[in-house]
TrEMBL record:
<keyword id="KW-1003">Cell membrane</keyword>
<dbReference type="InterPro" id="IPR006726">
    <property type="entry name" value="PHBA_efflux_AaeB/fusaric-R"/>
</dbReference>
<dbReference type="Pfam" id="PF04632">
    <property type="entry name" value="FUSC"/>
</dbReference>
<feature type="transmembrane region" description="Helical">
    <location>
        <begin position="506"/>
        <end position="524"/>
    </location>
</feature>
<keyword id="KW-0812">Transmembrane</keyword>
<protein>
    <submittedName>
        <fullName>FUSC family protein</fullName>
    </submittedName>
</protein>
<feature type="transmembrane region" description="Helical">
    <location>
        <begin position="426"/>
        <end position="448"/>
    </location>
</feature>
<feature type="transmembrane region" description="Helical">
    <location>
        <begin position="151"/>
        <end position="177"/>
    </location>
</feature>
<keyword id="KW-1133">Transmembrane helix</keyword>
<feature type="transmembrane region" description="Helical">
    <location>
        <begin position="103"/>
        <end position="121"/>
    </location>
</feature>
<feature type="transmembrane region" description="Helical">
    <location>
        <begin position="128"/>
        <end position="145"/>
    </location>
</feature>
<keyword id="KW-0472">Membrane</keyword>
<feature type="transmembrane region" description="Helical">
    <location>
        <begin position="396"/>
        <end position="414"/>
    </location>
</feature>
<feature type="transmembrane region" description="Helical">
    <location>
        <begin position="372"/>
        <end position="390"/>
    </location>
</feature>
<feature type="transmembrane region" description="Helical">
    <location>
        <begin position="78"/>
        <end position="97"/>
    </location>
</feature>
């Protein structure tokens, strides 16, 4: 037997790291080729139209280009909207503050801050439209500062580049796209199946009382947030007539409510308690079927029937089991959970087989963080003011470009949950873009005599950037490369860039990215540990409001917001490598269950007008005063439970009363875990 030649570890690691370049996947080659051709087409049209800055059309192609066609379509649409808004704002600022630098710069800084503030409250590429309106205004206004009479023509020119780049990218994507709706439907099915499979694993842990349930529940919430945000794009590819995305969001809401209900399962259902022993095998069989399911009509119907049968079984036992109150309450909670699962599976059936004349609409809200939005706005405004101050003090000829690039980078990172993550990769991409543009500008382009030669050489550099953008590990640096390299290249019909011009442009571009990195790390820096403490305090304050607000939100609203928060906490902990965050994530899960049970309790209170509902009203007012998660709050819940227990003995197995007891039991159980920091799980 021959021995394989020895290879040092660093060579093996280096080969693995560069696999995206030397052995790319066919999908990566198609993505890079598609966008390279679109970029060269946009550049050719810009040359033919004799536009003054054709590089912006190329940069637009790479800015809009996304791996999924639905993402590209959404980003292109919102990019045009943001560009138009930014162009109008630039014209207004130039007209309002001609030759008045220290009125102009603060106005632009305030606009950037406002756009970043509003973008934080939006999802996906809707937030990108706000950000784009901010830095487009800065780029146009800065370019027109020395020639204010031409601001309108500069704004029109900028809008022309954007539209040209978007149209070329869309046209090339249509040539490469085939069976778009079919593939989008398959993607939608795969996302929903992934959620059902992960739910099966989590539900099995709940049934078996696994100690790692809450840890995995946090990861499940993070996965749900990711799938929920991504479900918008296959929906765009499927067309407006399809309501599959609405049904998918309803699936996520029902599943999240079901899991949160089970967090508040009766404390009596311990490891050795017989409450679940007789139905455990059926629940585990349901978990196995969920884990292996595919979105096929027969399988979905069987699962739906199984969930409904379990719901009927638990309801029957809740009404007729006379052995113990805890058993009846536990079976009531399980009945509600199986009902939620049955509703989720019904929506899965609607995804696979859309009903005729389907008009179903559903939105699942997310967390809206006022403090994060304010900090994002202040960071963006601070960066512009610092860049403006540098320009005024130094009178740097490249200062205006320095301000424009600073605005662009701050806008791109301002809406991120943790803006520090990814900034260094973007800086490395900016450096690589300067290196690539320098090779082209100084050593290659001077020897080219026509567009065909330029397209061939430039296409190689763009193709490599496309491969890097498809690869997740290099996508952050590739985003900077595709956006900044064409700007440094500065191609033109009758333009050759000399060494001095190139070095000045490269210097102010790299320094602008470096300033943005420093601003995000030094101005109101993000700390994951502080964020967790703030989230916990914010949720506790919200719980008090849920008890007394005149128009309480729907449980779907609360659960959507809670899942978004928990997903953020999990991502922040993973990015920071903080293993100590598990306790705070568990606490957030418990507080989420408390809030859900409060809202369910208020719904039940509105259904009846008797002594028990009056006792609930008194309890809710008391919880709003003393906090639901407090010793005094737990004491009041115990007093109310004793009163309702006496009423239950008198009225027998009243379904309404059992649901109320289940909600109170859930609040008491999860609030106690949250207060005590108990690491024993459901």
């Amino acid at each position: 037997m021959t021995n394989a030649p020895f290879r040092p570890a660093w060579t093996r690691n280096g080969a693995a790291m560069m696999q995206w370049l030397f052995c790319p996947a066919p999908q990566a080659v198609g993505f890079a080729l598609r966008n390279t051709l679109a970029s060269l087409l946009a550049l050719a049209v810009a040359f033919w139209m004799e536009l003054d800055s054709p590089q912006w059309a190329v940069a637009t192609v790479w800015s809009v280009a996304q791996v999924r066609r639905g993402e590209s379509m959404s980003k292109a649409r919102w990019r045009i909207v943001g560009t138009m808004a930014g162009a109008i704002a630039a014209v207004v600022f130039i007209a309002a503050f001609p030759q008045q630098a220290w009125l102009f710069f603060p106005a632009v800084a305030v606009w950037i801050g406002l756009c970043s503030f509003l973008a934080t409250f939006s999802l996906n590429f809707r937030s990108y439209a706000f950000v784009l309106s901010g830095y487009t205004c800065s780029i146009i206004a800065v370019a027109a500062a020395s020639q204010p009479d031409n601001v309108f023509f500069i704004a029109v020119s900028r809008a022309t580049y954007i539209v040209l780049g978007v149209v070329c990218e869309a046209a090339m994507a249509l040539l490469f796209a085939h069976d778009l709706a079919t593939r989008a439907r398959a993607t939608m099915h795969a996302r929903v199946e992934e959620v059902l499979h992960q739910l099966a694993l989590l539900l099995r842990e709940i049934v078996l009382h696994d100690r790692e349930t809450l840890t995995h529940a946090g990861e499940f919430s993070d996965m749900m947030v990711s799938v929920h945000k991504g479900i918008e794009f296959p929906a765009i590819e499927m067309g407006r007539h399809s309501h599959a995305a609405d049904h998918a969001r309803a699936v996520f809401a029902d599943i999240s409510i079901m899991v949160t209900r089970l967090f508040g399962l009766s404390g009596a259902a311990g490891q050795g308690d017989p409450v679940l022993l007789d139905t455990r095998e059926r629940l585990l069989r349901l978990c196995d079927n969920l884990h292996s399911c595919r979105l096929h009509q027969g399988i979905l119907q069987a699962l739906h029937g199984e969930a409904e049968a379990l719901a009927v079984l638990f309801q029957d036992r809740a009404l007729h089991d006379n052995e113990a109150e805890a058993r009846r309450v536990t079976h009531t909670v399980l009945h509600a959970a199986m009902t939620d699962l049955a509703q989720a599976l019904a929506h899965c059936q609607a995804i696979f087989t859309p009903p005729a004349h389907d008009r179903f609409r559903f939105r699942l809200p997310g967390h809206r963080d006022l403090r994060l939005a304010l900090y994002n706005g202040l960071r963006g405004a601070a960066a512009i003011m610092i860049a403006g101050l540098v320009y005024e003090v130094t009178a740097w000829p490249g200062g205006m470009g320095f301000i424009a690039i600073t605005t662009l980078v701050c806008g791109l990172f301002a809406t991120r949950e943790n803006p520090v993550v990814g900034t260094l990769r973007f800086l490395s991409g900016a450096i690589w873009s300067a290196v690539a543009a320098g090779c082209l500008d100084l050593w290659i382009v001077p020897y080219l005599s026509n567009y065909e030669e330029l397209a061939f050489v430039l296409g190689i550099f763009l193709f490599v950037g496309g491969l890097a953008k498809y690869n997740p590990g290099t996508a952050g640096a590739a985003a900077a490369y595709g956006l900044l390299m064409p700007n440094l290249l500065m191609p033109g019909n009758q333009l050759r860039v000399d060494e001095i011009t190139f070095l000045n442009n490269a210097l102010h571009t790299v320094l602008a990215v470096g300033l943005s990195v420093l601003v995000f790390r030094l101005v109101l820096p993000f700390h994951a540990a502080e964020e967790r403490i703030r989230f916990a305090a914010h949720i506790r304050a919200e719980l008090r409001g849920l008890c007394i607000m005149p128009l309480p939100p729907l449980p779907q609203w609360w659960i959507g917001t809670s899942v978004d928060r928990i997903g953020r906490l999990v991502r922040h902990a993973a990015q920071a490598g903080d293993r100590a965050a598990a306790g705070e994530i568990r606490q957030a899960l418990m507080l989420s269950a408390v809030g859900l049970n409060i809202l369910l309790l208020r719904q039940l209170k509105r259904e009846q007008d008797n002594d028990a509902s009056h006792s609930l009203a008194v309890l809710l007012r008391t919880l709003a005063r003393y906090q639901p998660v407090s010793r005094r709050g737990l004491a009041m819940i115990s007093v109310t439970r004793r009163r309702l227990r006496a009423a239950a003995r008198h009225d027998g197995a009243d379904p309404w009363l059992l649901q109320v007891m289940g909600c109170l039991d859930g609040i008491e159980h999860t609030a106690a875990i949250s207060m005590n920091g108990d690491r024993t799980h459901i």
